[in-house]
From TrEMBL:
<dbReference type="GO" id="GO:0016787">
    <property type="term" value="F:hydrolase activity"/>
</dbReference>
<dbReference type="Pfam" id="PF12697">
    <property type="entry name" value="Abhydrolase_6"/>
</dbReference>
<dbReference type="InterPro" id="IPR029058">
    <property type="entry name" value="AB_hydrolase_fold"/>
</dbReference>
<keyword id="KW-0378">Hydrolase</keyword>
<dbReference type="InterPro" id="IPR050266">
    <property type="entry name" value="AB_hydrolase_sf"/>
</dbReference>
<feature type="domain" description="AB hydrolase-1">
    <location>
        <begin position="21"/>
        <end position="239"/>
    </location>
</feature>
<protein>
    <submittedName>
        <fullName>Alpha/beta hydrolase</fullName>
    </submittedName>
</protein>
<dbReference type="InterPro" id="IPR000073">
    <property type="entry name" value="AB_hydrolase_1"/>
</dbReference>
Amino acid sequence: MISTNGHRLAFHVTPGHLPTIVLDAGGGLDSSYWKNLVPVLAGDTGSEIITYDRAGMGASDEVPGPWKVQDAVSDLAAGLRQLGVTHDVVLVSHSEAGEIATSFVNDHPGAVAGAVLVDASLPDFYTPGELSRVIAANQAQIATLAKQPSTKQTRQLLAVAQDYGPAHQAYHQMTWPQDVPAIAIESAKTPFDTSPADARLWRDAQAAFVSHAANRRLVVAANSSHDVPIDRPDVVVKAIQDMIAEVGRT
């Protein structure tokens, strides 16, 4: 348990060598999302592996108020710092965690050697028109969540919704550092498998991201939903192995 800013966070560490693989799950999910992948990665890579529960999820304390990416970045940084992990990180970020990854690599230069972004939320997706459509489409879902029994997952999702518009307007302006290599894994269905227009823009955002630097590439996970680590763990493991080979090990 890591203490920071008045709350505690659960971090889970599998010992190994550098680079350290840090697995960050998507919105409303905790470290258990990676439970089947961790032993495979440990056996295949020998790397130290870290998973954790963001505030309000799993065994970590809840923090009231709207979810802010800056708070999530601060929590992750504090946990890694207290664990002595300050460099040679391969960051593996799924879905919403792509937003944390983007802020983290900008705020902590030199900490991340490379990243695998698994069907991740990327800045290019949040054009003004798309953001308006997503907010409108989410209204019914938010209203339904508010009526459901309160759980950690529903409270976390509602916290994200509170500041969604302004937060993603700002996120749309962010960029990924040119010196941090990345592999973007795109799912076959995207998170918008019932909305062709949204799905197309999601794919366009993945393609735009990798086009911005020569040290990025795109992998499409065939036959997968948005939950690529569940549906196609082999694709995720291969991308992590490739990134470790690119950044080296110590």
